[in-house]
Amino acid sequence: STLSWSSSIRNLPERTIVLLGKSGVGKSATGNTILGRNGFVSKKSSKSVTADIEKQNVTIEGTDLVVYDTPGFCNPDRSEEQIQEKFQNVLKLTSSGPRVFLLVVKIDRLTAEEKRVISKVEDLLGESLLKQTWILFTRGDELGDQTIEEFIADSDDLTEVMRKYGGRYHVFNNKSGDPEQVKSLLEKTSICL
Predict the structure, then answer these.
(1) Beta bridge partners of 108
(2) φ and ψ at 137, to 5 degrees?
(3) pLDDT tens figures, 149-171
(4) What's the whole-model pTM score?
(5) pLDDT of 51-91, one tens digit each?
(6) DSSP secondary structure, the chain, as one string
(7) How far apart are CA 170 and CA 163, in angstroms?
(8) Which of 71, 113, 120, 135 has a beta carbon 3.0–4.6 Å from 169's, enabling a disulfide?
(9) Which residue, among 76, 59, 79, has the nearest Cα to 67 in the 3D structure?
(10) In a domain, 174, yes or no
(11) Domains in the chain: how many in total?
């Protein structure tokens, strides 16, 4: 089945997606899923693969997207100040035009470190930009027969995160390469623009 795009999405100017999150959660793999190609270096690693802000462009059904991959939070190779500086740089780079922030989180229980990252992102973005932020769960294949709604409901921590983020979330299976999940993400996030 093919998703049809609403005319409001098709007529949008260039849109920007900024990938945020902890080191090792799959931000680069998520970026590659959105691009439909390997534009960002992505590999399993205990260290952050992305050292600087990286940018890739793609056109999906007439909509021009600019995707920014960012260095991960909680990176042992970078100070908190360096990471915050990169974060401020990406905010400046993306300040004109419609943008959406995707806070990438693995489908798993939230660790104390992940909770700190989520809280740090909330602080850095502030209330107005938080309204343009979505939680993007990676490893959607690991849900098995469970729905994402059941998974969230089973966790008080995730339920609280969803409350703060206005229930804005999406699930990716970066292994599948299914373009429908990207189209669905773009449909959902268009309401923030």
Answers:
(1) none
(2) -85, 130
(3) 999 999 999 999 999 999 999 99
(4) 0.87
(5) 688 999 999 888 899 999 988 887 767 777 888 888 889 99
(6) --PPPPHHHHT---EEEEEEEBTTSSHHHHHHHHHTS--S-----SS-S--S-EEEEEEETTEEEEEEE-PPBS-TTS-HHHHHHHHHHHHHHT-SS-EEEEEEEESSPPPHHHHHHHHHHHHHHHHHHHTTEEEEEE-GGGGTTS-HHHHHHT-HHHHHHHHHTTT-EEE--TTT--HHHHHHHHHHHGGG-
(7) 15
(8) 135
(9) 59
(10) yes
(11) 1
Q: State which amino acid sits at residue 15.
A: R
We report the CATH number of the domain holding residue 176 as 3.40.50.300
Q: Which two tokens stand for residue 31?
A: 């970026």
Does some domain include residue 152?
Answer: yes
Residue that the structure tokens 């995730």 belong to: 158
With beta carbons less than 8 A apart as the criterion, state whether 15 and 57 touch. Answer: no
Cβ neighbours of 18 (radius 10 Å): 26
Q: How many other CB atoms sit within 10 Å of the CB of residue 4?
A: 11
Measured between alpha carbons, how far is residue 192 from residues 18, 134, 140, 167 in Å?
14, 9, 23, 12
Residue 4 lies in a domain: no
Q: Is there a domain that residue 6 lies in?
A: no
Distance of CA 172 to the CA centre of its chain: 10
Residue ranges making up the domain that contains 108: 11-188
